[in-house]
Amino acid sequence: QVQLVESGGGMVQPGGSLRLSCAASGSGFSIYAMGWYRQAPGKQRELVARIVSGGSRNYADSVKGRFTISRDNAKNTVYLQMNSLKPEDTAVYYCNARAWDSNIYWGQGTQVTVSS
Questions:
Q1: Contact 10, 63 (CB under 8 A)
Q2: What pLDDT does 69 receive?
Q3: DSSP string computed for 79-112
Q4: pLDDT of 47-56, one tens digit each?
């Protein structure tokens, strides 16, 4: 079993920055990919960014050039650096991990609000 604990959400003005962190813990697991999804009110959950064990990254078109995902394999932690934030980035952000055995895990979510 894997537990994902997120931190770093909050409220920021447009143009500001936030950094989200997600630490995976548990025993007997090996993670293939970690990523971030978000869900705004009334909308479906969508992929924001994802990084796999070899380092390959992919991003939603809406965040390319503004968000950067990184991973510390030794700490089983993934980060999402969010710059030039826009009001449309407001959502609950969820950490996601996929293990090599194909099990998928979710964090509890952290609120990001971009507002003046």
A1: no
A2: 98
A3: EEEE-S--GGG-EEEEEEEEETTS-EEE---EEE
A4: 999 999 888 9
